[in-house]
Amino acid sequence: MAPSSCERDATSSDMAPTTGILLTVAYDGTAFSGWAAQRDARTVEEVLGGAVQAVDANASHVRGTSRTDAGVHAEAHPVAFDAVLPIEPRGWVLALNAHLPDDLAVRTARSVPVGFNPRFAAKEKRYRYRLLLDVVRDPLHAARSWRVGHALDRGRMREACDALVGTHDFAAFRTSRDERPNTERTLSQVVLEELSPRVLSVVVDGNAFMHNMVRILVGTLVDVGRGQLDPSCIVRAFETGERKHLGITAPAQGLTLERVVLDLPEGVSDPWPP
Fold this sequence. Notes:
Structural class: alpha+beta
Largest sheet: 10 strands, mixed
Distance between the termini: 47 Å
Number of helices: 7
Order of helices and strands: HEHEEHEHEEHEEEHHE
CATH superfamily of the largest domain: Pseudouridine synthase I, catalytic domain, C-terminal subdomain
CATH class of the largest domain: Alpha Beta
Strand content: 25-35%
Number of domains: 2
Shape: globular
Number of strands: 10
Oligomer: single chain
Helix content: 10-25%
Radius of gyration: 21 Å
């Protein structure tokens, strides 16, 4: 006689994970409502977790490193989970990608200790924000950049970039929804790069970020560049902690989580592909 559903659930719950798996995933955030699972919304956590469960029904929930917002992209987002089936990293990459849509892919996989959580192992994150300088919209850039139709003063923007580097109280650089008590962050780099005559990018490296922190930072740099704010607004925001001294919040589609540096424990395998 086949076991009942209750018996199957009880058996599954007793199965202990054999290994942890650390993925690097990439996604185009355009059609996602961010990372975190939400009711009646398509999210990266929900879609990726569904693929993991399709391969190993007894695997744990996926554990992401960053709670990216709706519309935000990622080139290298570390995600971990614990597996019961003894599948090698190469097998996980190929199997998961067979279950994933075109706008989400596993780029690498490696074995890690069971329970490893990349969120607490992140030492530094890099975000890149792309700006399209054009008075006319361009459909080839629409999903990956913020079109700014004003001339921007690069010198003023770089002055503001320099003021952002270091350890500061970034309380002003967050939304009202972010109520965490510790608002001190360290930015090791804020650089304005010219990718082409009409495409700029702002590269931000830091130890941790708050909700909408990079988007508020970029919106402020753009307002400085078009003369609506003085570069000294950065220092005033640090001193007062008041959002009113800063610029607009840049739209989500220009932002990409580009890389995360992790403090990996012993017993981690090499990634596949290398």
